[in-house]
Amino acid sequence: MSRKCVIGAGPLFSLLLVSSLIIMITVNSTWTGGGDFLDGVISCAIAFAANFIAVIPLGLLYRRKPTMNILDHGYYLTGWFGGVLALFYGFYFLTVDCYYLSVFQVFNANMIDPEMPSWLIVIAVLAAAVYAAWKGVESITRASVFILVMLLAGLAFILLTSIAQVKPENFKPVLYNGWEQTIRSTMLFLGRSTGLATLAVVLPVTKGGKKTGFAVWNIVTYVLMSAIIVIMVGVLGNALQIQMFPMHTLAAVSGIGPFQRMDSVFLGIWLLGVFIKIAVDLYLFGSCMQRVFRIRRGGFFIIGGALAVGAVSVLITKSVALQHLFFDIYLLAPLTLLASFVIPLVLLLIDTLKSKNKSIRLMEETLEVQNENRALD
Amino acid sequence: MGTKDQVPQKISASLLENLIYLRRQFDGSMDFIIRRFQIGERKAALITIDNLIDKQTIAQSILNPIRRAGLDKQSGTEMMKEIRDSILTTVDQEQMVEFDTLLTKLMSGFAMLAVDGCDFMLSIGVQSYAYRSISEPSNEVVQRGSRESFVEPFVINISMIRRRMKTPKLKFERVQLQSESNTDVCLCYLRDKVSPEILSQLKSNLSKIKLGAVMASGYLAPFIERRGLFNGVGVSERPDTVCGKISEGRIAVIVDGTPNVLIVPYLFIENFQTFDDYAARPFFATFTRWLKVFAFFLSIFLPGFYVASGTFHPEFLPQALLTKIVQAQAGTPFSLMVECIMIHIIYEILREAGLRVPKPLGHAVSIVGGLVVGEAAVQSGLVGPPTLMVIALTAISSYVVPSLYEQTAVLRLVFILIGGTLGFWGITLGFGMILISLCAESVYKIPFSAPLSPLRLKSMRDVAIRASWKVLRRDTENIQDMPGSNAKKK
């Protein structure tokens, strides 16, 4: 099987960085499980290290067969069960989208209170994302380079204009209340990151320095995330515990000269991030379904997936139970662990066993032939 | 002999048959001229199209030498060969054996010499027709650079390019289109710079064009570019700009009868690069380049953002500005969105009228548009002054990048509608969709958004900034070498 490389490593990791950045701007003390927000810096470091470990099975699988993605590996190594794996990945991407879109809706409803109905915004986001997904992963990754630049510029502006308001007394010792919150935050950060699952599907169609890209992506994510946490703690202090979207609050209180109230910048960068994230996930969902149903174009599935995401995300915003399920670590973290680490690891083990059996069989056959030859002599 | 529509392949040895055929083809058209004469005992004819030829040249370089030569007692073919090799003094001569090429040449201003008993005719270049003299460019005005612009006859345009690029590597290649008008189309490129793949793809695209008549280069553009919001084919009326593009591996498409030359492939970022950039000091060129980018975004998004902020997000505006807008809006009967759409459409009508109106009436249109409509609309309380100012500012901004005017005008209207219905969310998503549309397309296998995305830092010396010539001269970046390009390199 051969695939034409269509995306560059630079644009791909820009896309993944955009995805990571939206995770950062939605952290709050409720979801991290306590008020020791500064512990998040350690959680980031752990998540950073965990990502480097978690990528190993995926990297080894890719090194063995660089033209095959995780879906191809699934079919190749497990037969019909590969279809189940493809379905799992497809629905995993949709689940993550439901989370991202519902958080955005919650933010809109609580912070902005738009005059138009919430579903209209959902339709607009999904329509734009479907259009982007329809145009393909190449367009999405290229566009993400521009979006990343804007996102970084916006974030830098918000953070730099907030530095003046940092109060040293707001900083408390890290791990003051033990490791519990740190572990929870780590799970939260890792659970919301679909980067490795995305890599699992698109790695064979990527060209360029993947290792460097992966390292830069993780380092920049870690540095930015730490910077955001430190500045948020420094500026907002104890107020963090009652903020649902502390980054938005930070943007609203930051400003310099005539540039006051950076919340419009925050809204813009978040929306662009959500748009590009949903677009790529819908594309990946379409690819998974294409693989399952063996069809050439996944357009129908992209639209179907978008409708499902829209419906579920609206339901999530209306149900507290669903919000607990999706916004907490209990659903997304295990799913991400499965998609990013466990499945690639199991497939790697199967591949290793199959290769070993194959080489043993080959050795036995060689010995048999040699024995026959000796007997004939 | 074929009928009127069936062109026979070969020219007959009988002069009479040939002449009858040609007469039938032109069906008594008043500009079709046959001048019969005798060369010794043999009948001959000179066939021309009136007003496309120089009659003095015909008399001095064709008819007089033939008569003075005193040819006689030869076969038609021998006589024609002697005329061609020894008698005629004109430079441009070609032997015609087929009628279809003969007709094309004839209608391009060549004279056809036919001799009875000879199964070919001689096309002689005697073209001379009235054309507009070379003038200053009207759309691509520069401060420091040539004042010449292309004219309608493509041979003059070719000479203007050749004069600027004195290298044998510069090649002009005629392309035959499947059109009734038989318009001359010529590709111009540097043999050592052009990508063979792009060239063959362009030729293939041109060969597939089936049009009744090709009256301007704009007729061809849709067939040789990708479908999308932005142009993948550039247009220039400046020979120096075209030469600059050719030197980077691009191909110029020169169409007879059009004072514009098409440039293929053309990337998005090129819309912001003008000839003046390379003549000005680098720091100023960099400043103007960023100004152009800013003006482009301003012209698309400002009215939409103004409507969205005024309608849905007043908190995004500074209080003093918000107060002014609210005060102005209090006395007007329409919503901000309707006001903006009204003013935008009125402006577009005035612009269209200004383009088409006879020149003497131009001032009247300006006065009516600027003073009567604008002033009266505000005075009567139909629109608020801030709205008028926003649209006026964006209208001026849209002329900073004239090559993107079409897109800007439409997108501005779209974003007013989006801003008025979906607020800031809609504008952000619309922006995202434009980005995707930009990034989704490739022009002849080169990403339309290159070298920004995929990014190449080296290219930024002539994108994000305009580095000095000391830096730029080090190496020329060919179009096919853009990051993400799948076009084969030479």
Fraction in helix of chain A: over 70%
**Tally the helices of chain A: what do you get?**
15
Large-scale geometry of chain A: globular
The helix content of chain B, as a percent range, equals 40-55%
The succession of helices and strands of chain B, N to C, reads HEEHHEHEEHEEEHEHEHEEHHHHHHHEEH
Report on the biggest sheet of chain A: 2 strands, parallel
Give a description of the structure:
The complex is a heterodimer of chains A (377) and B (490). Chain A is mostly helical. Chain A has one domain (7-370): Up-down Bundle (Amino acid/polyamine transporter I), CATH 1.20.1740. Chain A is 77% helix and 2% strand. In chain A, the strands form two sheets. Chain A has a two-stranded parallel sheet. In chain A, a hairpin with a 2-residue loop joins strand 3 and strand 4. The radius of gyration of chain A is 23 Å and the shape is globular. The mean pLDDT of chain A is 87. With 490 residues, chain B is α+β, with helices and mostly antiparallel strands. Chain B folds into three domains: 15-125, no CATH class; 154-266, no CATH class; 281-440, no CATH class. Helix content of chain B is 46%, strand content 13%. Chain B is elongated and about 100 Å long. Chain B starts with 14 loop residues before the first helix and ends in an 18-residue tail after the last helix. In chain B, 39% of the residues are buried. The model of chain B has no long low-confidence stretch (mean pLDDT 87). Classes of the chains: A mainly alpha (377), B alpha+beta (490). The A-B interface holds A 8, 10-11, 114-116, 120-121, 124-125, 127-128, 131-132, 135-136, 138-140, 142-143, 145-147, 258, 260-261, 263-264, 267-268, 271-272, 275-276, 279 and B 311-313, 315-316, 318, 421-426, 428-433, 435-440, 447, 449, 452-455, 483-484.
